[in-house]
C-alpha cells in the first residue's frame, strides 16, 4: 500500500513538472502548454459568444414521453454517444455531452 502511494505521488509530481516544462513530456504526449495558451487566447476574445452561451440560447426541447435519447445531431458523425435521460422532474434534463435541455411537453 505504501509503495502504491509513493508511485502515485511520483506520477503526480511528474505531471506538475510537465506543466512547468513541456519538454519533460514523452514525445507521444500532448503539449499541455499549447492547450492552456489556446484556452487563454479564446477566453480573452469577448467579441464572440462562448459555446456555453450559444447552447444556453437554445430553448429547451419539448418531448412527449418520459424518456429522451440525445445524440447531439442527426448525423452520427457529428453527434456524441447516445445519452438517455428521464424527464420526471420539473427542471429540464441536460445532456452531459452537448448541453441540450429537454422537458416533458405535458408535465403534471
Structure description:
It is a single chain. The protein is an alpha+beta fold and 108 residues long. 36% of the residues lie in helices and 16% in strands. The strands form 2 sheets. The protein has a 3-stranded mixed β-sheet, with no helix packed on it. A two-stranded antiparallel sheet has the order 2-3. The longest helix is centred in the N-terminal third of the chain and has 19 residues, at 2-20.
Mean pLDDT: 75
Order of helices and strands: HHHEEEEE
Judged by helices, strands and strand pairing, the structural class is alpha+beta
Give me the oligomer status: single chain
Radius of gyration: 21 Å
Biggest sheet record: 3 strands, mixed
Strand content range: 15-25%
Strand order of the largest sheet: 1-5-4
- State the total count of DSSP E strands: 5
Number of helices: 3
- Termini separation comes to 53 Å
How would you sum up the global shape? elongated
Share of helical residues: 25-40%
Unreliable runs, pLDDT <50, ≥5 residues? none
